[in-house]
Design goal:
The chain is of the alpha/beta class and about 210 residues long. Helices cover about 35% and strands about 15% of the residues. It has a single domain, classed as Rossmann fold.
Length: about 210
């Protein structure tokens, strides 16, 4: 992502419904199921630190991202254990973490199976990897291109990538399905709307819409 887009994300991710809803979903999935005391958590592709900051209330969070701009913004939020690294080659010992987060990062790499296998390398036996990716290839748009996505997933293609990486699926589901009709309509209407150029769709929403 460009520096301007990272700044925009940092400005909205604390309160924007998309980021808040995603974090709440994974809070329920992970910490209602796992009974790990003070877990060691790795946020891969931590970006500007919104998710890492949230999950720091449950355990010790380490963040890694290849963007130095993103890491500086994450530091501004108060995060300290941050490292510049590629997700495909993590600078951590094997079986180092109880929980590994990979939110909106797997779709950015060419070899998603190799990256998923690397996530599996650093998680401890009995731990968990939480993955969030963009779905529905039919919804591909300029927003995906601006963000540097390589692909969108279906349940089948994500399942195939995960199992090919040697990982076992405990839960595979959808998030934010209620906005699917609106998202589809936006893709159809986008050519008729003023262009945002090469900027990502990250901006504050009016309070009635931000729920």
């Amino acid at each position: 992502m460009k520096a301007d887009d990272l700044e925009a994300m940092h400005a909205v991710e604390t309160n924007h419904w998309w980021f808040v809803g995603k974090r709440m979903l994974f809070e329920r999935l992970l910490f209602d199921r796992l009974r790990i005391r003070n877990p060691q958590i790795l946020d891969v592709g931590c970006g500007t630190g919104g998710s890492a900051w949230t999950f720091a209330t449950y355990g010790h969070v380490y963040g890694c991202d290849r963007s130095l701009v993103a890491l500086r913004l994450a530091q501004r939020s108060g995060l300290r254990d941050l490292v510049a690294a590629d997700a495909e080659v993590l600078p951590f010992d094997s079986e180092r973490f109880d929980i590994v987060l990979a939110f909106d990062i797997v779709e950015h790499v060419d070899d998603d199976r190799a990256m998923l296998a690397e996530l599996g390398r650093v998680v401890r036996p009995g731990g968990a990897i939480a993955i969030h990716v963009p779905a529905w290839p039919a919804l591909w748009s300029g927003h995906d291109e601006v963000l540097g996505h390589r692909r969108r997933y279906t349940r089948a293609t994500l399942r195939e990538a995960i199992t090919a990486a040697g990982l076992r699926i405990e839960y595979l589901g959808w998030a934010s399905t209620t906005i699917l009709p609106a998202a589809a309509a936006a893709r159809v209407l986008r050519p008729l709307l003023p262009s945002r150029g090469d900027r990502a769709d990250l901006y504050p929403l009016p309070r009635p819409l931000n729920r």
